[in-house]
Write the structure tokens for this entry.
Amino acid sequence: MVCGGFACSKNCLCALNLLYTLVSLLLIGIAAWGIGFGLISSLRVVVVVIAVGIFLFLIALVGLIGAVKHHQVLLFFYMIILLLVFIVQFSVSCACLALNQEQQSQLLEVGWNSTASARNDIQRNLNCCGFRSFNPNDTCPASCFKDVHPCPPCAPIIGRYAGEVLRFVGGIGLFFSFTEILGVWLTYRYRNQKDPRANPSAFL
């Protein structure tokens, strides 16, 4: 049987939202694990990751309830929210993939200067001090700071990984953006299908 009926659309939509639920719980778990093991000390980063996870979980919950109950209002709002998320995520993913070396360096420097806790995490984990240069009178959490030899700047070290990280983030973002547009299409089709168990005179 071709997958185009009411039951198939419902099952596909439920499976998609279960995937979103797993991803949201994974994001929350990673943030909790990172701060629990001391890998992330920046409260701002943790809050952003957890907020994204909770937002994705709520979207998946609305979609799951709407799919199970064939609730027209919930499915409509789910479709609109998913479409808006797709537009934002697709744009950000394309921007990550399109950044050149100079733009990456500028973006990294802005991020470096924006938060001290994340800067300390980078210096400690990558064993470097300063972005492009380091003032010896300043303090640095890197282990090399205690040695006689000078610490290397962080910009070249971060730059080696920045391109790969941006490509990875952009690729993951594109993948999930296409699942979101798939969710919009499935929701639109599912909303306009008749539940075979429902009253024939019920509102479609």
About this structure: The two ends are 24 Å apart (CA to CA). The chain has a mean pLDDT of 81.
